[in-house]
Design a protein that fits this description.
Phosphorylase Kinase, domain 1, elongated, about 190 residues, alpha+beta, three-stranded mixed sheet, three-stranded antiparallel sheet, 3 domains
Length: about 190
């Protein structure tokens, strides 16, 4: 590389001698960065969505290429987030594409050292049996003075931030119908 090539490749020289005296455009761009394209430019389609992590409801743009999610960014048209996402929302692509994501029911028996895969029907039956047993063991019909209670203190619910309003509404109705009093959601804490 000659001295002239070196000087012409220097960003300050390009800034002062070119049409970009403030150094905000082509003068600041290296040859490598000039060849780069955004991941969103090559996407086949874009779908609008809502971030699943908390109750704020930030808008997201989900970019898809060949049936796979390639990028998730904030939606500038969202009146709530105006294109911004928190660190969890910005990393939400890994929620659906991570190779570490669990897609099977995993169970570790008491005193076991290894996890095992369970059939979904078996896992749901185990959960139902345990909920009913806890409810039966801790059910309170009346208090000491004979006033009706119809409650259990042996069951509680802590909802997650990846649930939407409809799911949280149904969970609240379910746990209330079972007699539970301690019903909370992570997004409120």
């Amino acid at each position: 590389m000659g001295l002239r090539t070196f000087i012409e490749g220097w960003p300050v020289y390009r800034q002062l001698s070119g049409t970009d005296p403030l150094g905000r455009g082509a003068a600041a761009q290296s040859p490598r960065s000039a060849e780069l394209t955004a991941r969103t430019e090559t996407a086949d389609s874009m779908a609008r969505s809502i971030c699943p992590y908390c109750a704020v409801g930030c808008g997201q743009r989900v970019y898809v290429k060949d049936g796979q999610v390639t990028q998730i960014e904030g939606d500038p048209d969202s009146p709530i987030s105006r294109g911004r996402l928190c660190p969890k929302g910005a990393a939400s692509k890994s929620l659906v594409t991570s190779p570490l994501r669990q897609t099977k029911v995993r169970y570790r028996r008491p005193y076991a050292t290894e996890w095992e895969d369970l059939d979904l029907d078996v896992a749901l039956d185990m959960i139902a049996d345990r909920v009913l047993a806890a409810r039966d063991e801790t059910w309170e019909d009346v208090d000491d003075e004979g006033r009706p209670l119809n409650r259990t203190l042996g069951i509680s619910s802590l909802g997650g931030a990846t649930l939407d309003n409809e799911e949280n509404y149904l969970i609240k109705k379910l746990f209330t119908a079972m007699g539970a009093l301690q019903i909370e959601n992570q997004a409120r804490i």
